[in-house]
Amino acid sequence: MIKDHSSLAASVFSKHADLYREKFMDLDVYDDSYRTFCELLPQGRARVLDAACGPGNASRYLLAQRPDLDLLGIDLAPRMVELARAAVPSARFAVHDCRNLADLKLRFDGIICAFGLPYLSWQETEAFVRAAANVLEPPGALYLSTMLGGSEDSGFQQCSSGEQLYINYHSEEDVISALRGCSFVIVKQKRMNSPGVASKKTTDLIVVAKQCLPG
Length: 215
Fold this sequence. Notes:
By secondary structure, the protein is of the alpha/beta class. The chain has one domain: Rossmann fold, CATH 3.40.50.150. It is 33% helix and 28% strand. The protein has seven helices and nine strands; from the N terminus they run H-H-H-E-H-E-H-E-E-H-E-E-E-H-E-E. Helix 3 packs across helix 4.
């Protein structure tokens, strides 16, 4: 059976997870946006999902700021999950597809998906935002980051390991529209250049949003 693009990406990331950790684990360029997300979470043992958690870099920052968080990280790449467990032993991690949030049968106060969207098609991205809205406890917080571009830019690209990954580029307008369509209010919206360690120079988008309270 032919694997879909996300599953193929998970295979590549699992194979090269240690290299990815070396390149990206200690970056601090996203810390200010992670901090904004943290500030939206309720006090006490807030429940947070780190979707497409990678080696645990975002999870590690969140728990350093809020050790009281009840944090679950999921990733489709088994080796990434192993590395995340080692890096953040106070959190829980599992191999799970972020396209199937409902299957977790859990509710959350916040969801963070740091650069998971480049490995989701636009239809999958819209579905992820809808699923996130459904499993968040209002006024839930949602963090998204992705690489900006048009659908014509999407396609297979060679990564630093020499293997091919299918990269999906999404427009800022589409991401914001999808969020507002699910009753999210934008709290932070920021464009920035990709970090120097990235294999390809891109313009990245970071959005932190919060659900509207009913009524």
